[in-house]
Amino acid sequence: MYFIDTNSKIPLHIQLYEALKKDIISNYNINEKLPSIRKIANIYNLSKNTVENAFSQLIVEGYIDSYPKSGYFVTDTNYDNFSINQKEMKKEIYIPKDEKILYDFFPARLQKENFPLKLWKRLFTKVINESIDFGNYSHKQGEENLRVQIANYLNKSRAVKCTAQQIIIGSGFTDSVGMIALILNKTHKSLAIENPGYHVARKIFENHNYKIKKIDLNKDGIILDQLKESKSKLVYITPSHQYPTGVVMPISNRLKLLQWAKEEDAYIIEDDYDSELNYENRPIPSLQGLDNNHRVIYVGTFSKALSPAIRVSYMVLPNSLLEIYNKRFLYHSSKVCLMTQKTLEKFMEDEYWDRHLRKIRMLNKKKHNLMKKYLEEKLGTTFKIITQGGGLAILINPTGPFDWEKLETLAKRQKLKLYYAKERSGDEWQALMMGFGGLKEEEIEKAINAFSIIWHKCLKN
């Protein structure tokens, strides 16, 4: 048993983290399973968030790993004082089963064949022969001409007001947002975030010791009165396609939010994560483009429309924060491979990026419409669409009583990989995320047929 002192000034999740770490080092074998979050929360009368935060820190530091649907397991950290019995370890070792998945409905995946591999290889060969100086360090903000190309694209397609000097290239969303957390952590102690909202953004700021203030949503996005009451001077939002509900923030609320930021001397982090993939309307211009007071930090990525594997993101900093960045990241080097940066630069400069976007929108619009059609045909009145028309997934919910646990069990049995909004939005809101981006067009009808069979078995009469 662990001793958790509710009267201590040390936060509960830190106390639990320290106790778990000590127990893991002293008593656990490599690959041994830890008790579940729910079990620990019940035993010690702690909130689920408190236990999740403790586990998150253990994962970050490499003490444990998380295996979806299976639990948390001790990693091989090579600590001398880990108690390891080799015979027992062989019996208890956990190896994730590499079972063949028939249909994977991952909500943020592109089809492998959609990546322009032949063109990318040709451009890679060209830049490695002509453009790369292997005797020099790359710029800490990313290659200058790549930032010029991104600035041009953002100005033209997203109405973002920026220069190349304001852009910082990151190695994916977590890298970019982690830099923002470090830039602001001396002046800001809390982060307001949409509820439900993107759990990864919340976790990043929690790991930087920010206090998280959850702000509810309505049909117009984040509720501004709650935001004002929170007293936070920093807010993270997804205004053009709210994650995960799909709500779009109207212009009236955008202007009110910008006015709030001006009056409170606050900053807005605008995550424009999938704006390129809009199938029913023209993409909504960025919030940053409406900002005349330099209060918006704009974050984007190439993961949804080009490839998550190349790990390239970008952010646009107001000039005031750029000065702080230059001081705090004086010895920072770009984490994105130089060859990747130069190839992407050439890809954009020669207008292949624009052509690719047109192609990927068309392909995924077809998949989106096919999935919607077959869901409506096979599920009928037993379901409702929560959000559709953009991104790489259609979110659905049952219209009546439903057995979610049974759905999870049957999906595993039928080798269908399903994804739930509750797991990806801080346990606050439930919906089934029916991803179509990674499926081939000819697979979608068969995938929905297989899914519909188990769906109907989970309806409660």
Instruction: Give the % helix.
Output: 40-55%
The first-to-last residue Cα distance is 43 Å
What oligomeric state do these chains adopt? single chain
Assign the CATH architecture of the largest domain: 3-Layer(aba) Sandwich
Q: Report the principal-axis shape.
A: globular
Strand runs, count: 15
The CATH class of the largest domain turns out to be Alpha Beta
**Beta-strand percent range:** 5-15%
Q: Order of strands across the widest beta sheet?
A: 4-11-10-9-8-5-6-7
List low-pLDDT spans. Answer: 78-98
- Based on CA atoms alone, the radius of gyration comes out at 23 Å
* Largest sheet properties: 8 strands, mixed
Q: What is the name of the CATH topology of the largest domain?
A: Aspartate Aminotransferase, domain 2
Class derived from helix and strand content: alpha/beta
Helix-strand blueprint:
Layout: H1 12-27, H2 37-43, H3 48-60, E1 64-67, E2 71-74, H4 86-92, E3 103-104, H5 117-130, H6 144-157, E4 167-170, H7 173-184, E5 190-195, H8 199-207, E6 211-218, E7 221-222, H9 224-230, E8 234-237, H10 251-264, E9 267-271, E10 296-301, E11 313-316, H11 319-328, H12 338-349, H13 352-379, E12 383-387, E13 393-398, H14 404-413, E14 416-417, H15 421-424, E15 432-435, H16 441-457
Parallel strand pairs: 3-14, 5-6, 5-8, 8-9, 9-10
Antiparallel strand pairs: 1-2, 4-11, 6-7, 10-11, 12-13, 13-15
